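Hi R.,

As promised on Friday, here is the backbone we talked about, encoded as structure tokens. Could you run it through your design pipeline when you get a chance and send me back a sequence?
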């Protein structure tokens, strides 16, 4: 089977040859052609380096929400935040977009009711609104954590989980 070729400005080369000449990965060139890009754009537009990351909105940290809640910290590289009540006795993991919308800034504890309580291996318990997002952040298997919450399994990587 002959290698696929591209012709640009009267020059015909394989994807591998164009990749070597342009510095754009062969897989990127193939993906661009499959996506319907014109040959000129395929070979001349520089490739983006890495994935685009959403900027961290550090301005939310410490923000007061209603009378009894405040944003404690951001969870890893996700867009989820830990929100605590005034005395720090309860906390919830909530998506950042809920904190950015003006209509959601008057939240109280009842609107952030945890659906699960998760206990880490060090015995610290946190209320979780979105178990799937929480599992992604702390690198746990969501389906296994559901089994733990249902009592079908005792723990997952030392973590416990129960329904609220």
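Update: got your reply. Pasting your designed sequence below so it's all in one thread:
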């Amino acid at each position: 089977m002959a290698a696929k070729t591209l012709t640009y400005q009267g020059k015909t080369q394989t994807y591998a040859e164009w990749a070597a000449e342009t510095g754009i990965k062969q897989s990127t060139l193939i993906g661009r052609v499959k996506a319907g890009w014109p040959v000129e754009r395929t070979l001349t537009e520089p490739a983006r380096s890495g994935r685009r990351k959403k900027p961290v909105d550090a301005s939310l940290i410490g923000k007061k929400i209603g009378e009894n809640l405040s944003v404690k910290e951001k969870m890893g590289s996700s867009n989820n935040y830990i929100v605590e009540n005034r005395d720090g006795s309860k906390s919830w993991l909530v998506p950042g977009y809920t904190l950015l919308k003006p209509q959601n800034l008057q939240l109280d504890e009842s609107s952030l009711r945890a659906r699960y309580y998760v206990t880490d291996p060090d015995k610290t318990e946190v209320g979780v609104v979105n178990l799937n997002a929480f599992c992604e952040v702390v690198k746990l298997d969501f389906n296994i954590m559901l089994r733990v919450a249902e009592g079908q399994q005792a723990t997952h990587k030392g973590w416990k989980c129960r329904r609220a």
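One thing I noticed while checking it: The chain has two domains: 5-44, 58-163.

Thanks again,
M.
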